[in-house]
């Protein structure tokens, strides 16, 4: 064998050995309400030091998919987290929305509520993944390791932690009343000692009497004060910086934390504690840690995505991520950590702000107006009965018992209700249960997204799609939840362990994240996944 052939053989063996190696830790980061254009929009103010980067870890040192879009219309927190975790459409994983109605009682069902469990660290019934109808990437990792992989998730929101943690992870979230990180009897018999120590450490109170002021001179920001007049600041906040936190550790203070960058910092603090306590990334098998940063969603809803608050919050989150990555580099080595970043949904601007710039936009009272259709529906069928049982947008539910008693055909009632709802201000389109279950609507981009999110056991008899840039109430300044591009577009990035540096512009889906992680680790894919493997992440 020649020297050159021998050298090539040695190189091939080394390459093969490297390719077969496993990351020590998979870190999945979800930034709540991070629209796909926002990272490049604010990149100039992100940490630039090569040895310590936050979002630039993905933008400059990883594989960046710039055209990732959800393929469902219910672009909401629970639905997005479930899709990222399972690699499946909502029609498959079963999380139809944040809330839906019980078909028999009409009562609201919260996506992760589980009355068979109780909270640990707080009072009341708790949360679990009981409503999830598909396995997650973390579930498959647990199975592949024969239960030896350590799997944890943390978020301010329970649904942000529970749905990514899956059936076999251990999930923690934030209690707005006490500022504690809490969990559920689904995961533990009692709150672990380390979580209790964290709650008693004083970390949650270190922001008392702190102002949230701009971290940079105002002229350096991309956004401006232009939307300030249209904001709906949460309790305790004024319009405009600085935002002063209370000097008393009470319910108001702990609630206000979730609307400031300090909530993200506390989430990262707890994640670091989990790494230390469980020695994540130090064992024989690949471990998994999911962190969902919820604050951008709270800030974006109340101050708007075009606000100085939204931009400064992401600039500060960038620094928080840089510190987290530096910590993981010391503990595990970033070359041993496979990092994935995405978001559960995007967001639209405040409707009134868009109108001030000459765009068409609308704010109405859609939910209440749809409930009022009861009278029109009864009049049409000439009955003295309430035929609408419940409204949990985007779903409207008919009362099947009343329809049977009044001898009204269900399909006829659906069609008439859909026609009536289509005339409500702010409604763009309506779909009946019958057509969503019996027709192939894949030719229609909007209809296909509605069909992809339809869960027969949980969705309504009529599904409402709002007009573009339309809001259904005054519960927030800005919102999301539509099939339009500003809501479906999110980042999808990979960095760290063996991930090549490249940018991809072809359209992909967040469904692809769980599938790709499974392929990278060589494990079974989540059972109902509909995504595709992103081959660019494998091209060394």
Automatic annotation (TrEMBL):
Keywords: Metal-binding, Phosphoprotein, Signal. Residues 1-21 form the signal peptide. CDD domains: AP-SPAP (cd16016). Pfam families: Phosphodiest. Transmembrane segments: none annotated. InterPro entries: Alkaline_phosphatase_core_sf, Alkaline_phosphatase_prok, Phosphodiest/P_Trfase. The keyword Signal applies. The keyword Repressor does not apply. This is Alkaline phosphatase family protein. It comes from Lacimicrobium alkaliphilum. The lineage of its organism: Bacteria, Pseudomonadati, Pseudomonadota, Gammaproteobacteria, Alteromonadales.
